[in-house]
Amino acid sequence: MSHSESRSALGARVETILTATPVTDIHTHLYDPAFGDLLLWGIDDLLVYHYLVSEAFRWLELPYDKFWALPKARQAELIWDALFVKHSPVSEACRGVVTTLHALGLDVRARDLPALRKWFAQWKPADYITRCMELAGVKSICMTNSPFDDLERPVWEKGFNRDERFTAALRIDPLLVSWGDTAPILAGWGYQASGSLTDRTISEVRRFLEDWTRKMDARYLMVSLPPDFDFPADTTTARLLAKAVLPHCRDHGLPMALMLGVKRQVNPALRMAGDGMGRSRLVALERLCALFPDNKFLATVLSRENQQDLCVLARKFRNLHVFGCWWFTNVPVIIEEMTRMRLELIGLSVTPQHSDARVLDQVIYKWRHTRRILARVLTDKYADLAETGWDVTDADIQRDAQDLLGGAFARFCAKA
Ligand code: RAT
Ligand code: ZN
């Protein structure tokens, strides 16, 4: 913003450049089209998204099991009626559906679910993927891939031609958080793993990680952990991390993503919508970064109260990369605060957002909403600089936008 440039002109420049900069979506629950029906899309899946299920139950009176016994279309109708017809869809997850429909060119004023269904029915997944990625400005989508998922595993085992827009991340929650149940599963797959963490078991866990890292061509490994996760600690989680997972990641130059603060199944009757959250002990992450300087960590945390501590850790450890406004933090009030805080404390070596999309169409709203906030925050930062005469050129803005939308992440992953 030179002396002659108004704030609104600067804002328009930033917004135009951000919109034109394609993003690498580093964490989603979407699938390469080769996985067939595992890739969810369309109005009914948008409506039965677990974020909306928990909101709908605030109004619904029918028992949980009656709801789950209904076909998906009926569940979608109940959610539509409760959250979009009987009340205004102001929550972020509801607004997301409306933004998505609008961006797709649908008339949202009609509030006509049968008409919406008719429109979606004309699409073929292959074309629809391209359309959604175009509208979202997304160039590459990282999946969450679990060898422990019975629907997903056979597809990997059989092999398929990869769609180059979809990359993989190896998810290992069962291995790290429920070893007691997982050891026999590994044994059933031919790995000589026993309940106690003997040297033999550790090397077999490493062989398992090797096999799946290769099969998936995984870009990183990942786990979500509860608020009370500690390190070092006399727990199987901590021991498996230290002895098997981190040495594997180090040897392959792969980051380990830690998603901290989830309390699984606070209300199991809500199924996938039943997870809660808590404040994490970030001293565990501090020790991991310090004790494993040759490892790279990606981290995102659920609790708002943890966000400043996380930024400060990133200032101390260059083997830590902060990413995303995860799940319950993915609401504008918190995204804006977190993004400002991150830029102010760490600058541009951060990945401010991932979509966490579970339904393909969601990438449209997740990235439209995020880009708008990013534009506001970046404009404020540039405007502050402009007061000193430090003007940003379009090329500067482009470079910064690329860092935020995948460039900084790629550089971190490529680091030795
Ligand atoms: O945001 C979500 O959809 C959650 O259900 C979780 O999947 C979370 O993102 C995770 O990856 O554990
Ligand atoms: Zn996720």
How would you briefly describe this protein structure?
The chain is α/β, with parallel strands linked by helices and 416 residues long. It has 18 helices and 9 strands. Strand 2, helix 9 (153-158) and strand 3 (166-171) form a beta-alpha-beta unit.
Shape field: globular
- The first-to-last residue Cα distance is 37 Å
Q: Poorly predicted ranges (pLDDT <50, ≥5 residues)?
A: none
Secondary-structure element series = HEHHHHHHHEHEHHHEHEEEHEHEHHH
Query: Major sheet: order of its strands?
Result: 1-2-3-4-5-8-9
Describe the structure.
- The protein starts with 6 loop residues before the first helix and ends with a helix.
- It is an alpha/beta fold and 416 residues long.
- Helix 6 (92-103) crosses helix 17 and helix 12 (199-216) crosses helix 13 (236-252).
- It has a seven-stranded parallel sheet with strand order 1-2-3-4-5-8-9, sandwiched between helices. It has a two-stranded antiparallel sheet with strand order 6-7.
- The chain has helices at 7-20, 43-47, 50-56, 64-69, 72-85, 92-103, 113-121, 125-136, 153-158, 173-177, 179-188, 199-216, 236-252, 282-291, 307-316, 332-346, 362-386, 394-414, and strands at 23-25, 138-142, 166-171, 218-225, 256-260, 262-263, 276-277, 297-301, 320-322.
- The chain is built from 18 helices and nine strands.
- The longest helix is centred in the C-terminal third of the chain and has 25 residues, at 362-386.
- 52% of the residues lie in helices and 9% in strands.
- The structure holds D-arabinaric acid (RAT) and zinc ion.
- The site of zinc ion (ZN) has 4 residues, from loops.
- Zinc ion (ZN) is lined by residues 27, 29, 144, 356.
